Amino acid sequence: MLLTGGLKSLLPHVLRRIIRCNRHSISNTSGMAEGYKQANIVILHKSLADDFEKFCHANNGPLPLLYRSKPGDWKCPSLSSDSDIRTDCPQCRVYEHGAFTGSVKSLKEYSEQLKDMVTFYLGCSFSFEKAIQNAGIPVRNVEQECNVSMYKTAVPCYSISTFCCNLVVTMRPIPESKLEAAVLATSELKEAHGAPIHIGDPGLLGIQDLSKPDYGDPVHLHPGDIPVFWACGVTGVEAVINCRSPLAFTHSPGCMFITDLKNDSVTVGSSSEVPQVYCISQDPLHYSMVSAEATQKIKNLENLIGIDPGDRGIIHLHRPDELLKACLAISHARSVLITTGFPTHFSYEPPEENDGPPGALAIAAMLQALEKDVAIVTDQRAMDLNKKIIDDAVQLGILKRPVPLLSYQRENADSALRFLCENGNRRRPRFDHLIAIERAGMAADGNYYNARKVNIKNLVDPIDDLFLAAQTIPGVTTTGVGDGGNELGMGKVKEAVKKHIKNGDTIACDVEADFTIVAGVSNWGGYAIACALYILSTCEIHDRYLRKAVGFPQLLKKKTWLSALPSVTKEEKLLKALVQHGVRSGKTASLEMEVDGLPFYDTHSLMIEKLLQELKQ
Predict the structure, then answer these.
(1) What catalytic activity is recorded (predicted)?
(2) Is the whole-model pTM more than 0.85?
(3) Class of the 279-551 domain?
(4) ω into 202 cis (within 30 of 0)
(5) Most exposed among 47, 88, 147, 530, judged by the fewest C-beta atoms under 10 Å?
């Protein structure tokens, strides 16, 4: 590749003249005309133009439309003063009936056909390279003097008529410490694809081998670099191939049309527009994205539920941002398994307490509204009780439909793995995320204890096995919600439980979850998860990241999500139903506890009201 300092610093009109005269061998335009916008090119017959424009608007992450020409118009006056698309790309590709038939440096020989064709100029990520460099971030492909790496993904674009294809992405290695800076530098440059659509393991996009890009050159990662993926205009090339038009032209990937338009410096406005990055999984490596505004709201929820009724010491178990990270992981999941049930009243029938099921059902209701698969696993002896509770929740309007109810028994060493994965195959998990809320957790000695140090192991099925097995399955993450340290998933804070919780040395759960949510009452944690998932779903930055910048925003479903939120009325009706089934309160000291001056039994409604109020801020 020829990329001298002179070419790099030349103005666009001079570069176009050099390209037009074919005086230099230019293999790609990355790093050229720094600070100016570059464009992908798609040229189609005029009969296809309207549908392709709709396709661009439906997938504006990879295909931000800068300009559409009239049929036979080789210029683009709003982008450049003296251009001719027939000669001003370093190299173009020719497609006939979807088949690539060759590359050319000039389209002049096709001038007659071009009279009936329309040119689309689409934004390009080369345009943001200078912004990344200005943020102190290395651009590895420029350093290595090669084209950027481009990959076909398994992510389908939104189809319009004959235009259908999977998303194509570019990959740029970014030092881990610079991830958020890279996102900030590109997020508002929407005509250059905007913020990344994926950060982390390429396999999550269906990319098998970074060393074998579908277009461009392999770019080598330095130690500490993270692969970061942006939507790419070469998606338009794939759309051209799949529509099989008799004749079409595109730029050769990396050989862009250079415009006269500068990338104006963009100042991010409100906190709803400021993206933040969080790691939600190490195996596979996966980061998520959310706005600063949504982050703060979820942190406020975490603070609300973290109060310590009765000063039991749970405030010492709190770990910041666990609610946020857990809900980001849940938001990315397709299928979620929930477990609850703490038989603290061992001498009664049923022995369950009423803390846990309402929170579990609040989570399940929101997951249903978000169109995720959800199931509940519980003790075999409690199946009938839980079926009645689920049926009640449907009749009361809490759930849209019954949740599948499962039980787990340990039959052999592979039982948990076979329960979680098809035929025990770790590459085919049935669930992406497991949630335990107020579920009795196994202590270090293998027993299960209530808060008074009574061993209740005879009443508890070994559902902990599922959380232990999940640690060995790539892509499956777990969350534990508790209010005393003896609940499943609290192993992450077991040392604090032993130090600060009464009987902690004995009762502390030994089984960890990836994320540990500590609440004054576990039900509050369930309500907070439901509210946090709502916040994430209504966050434009997170929504775009989830759908990989293809298709349309999901905010039209907001009414459905709102109707799934917990409410005082729902909670009161469900608690009455639990009483009818003989389920008792689990807080033995509840009459002595007060929160904000209210008796403990009245604080559940107050907490729900506070959580919902936070959503309105």
Answers:
(1) D-glutamate = 5-oxo-D-proline + H2O
(2) yes
(3) alpha beta
(4) no
(5) 47
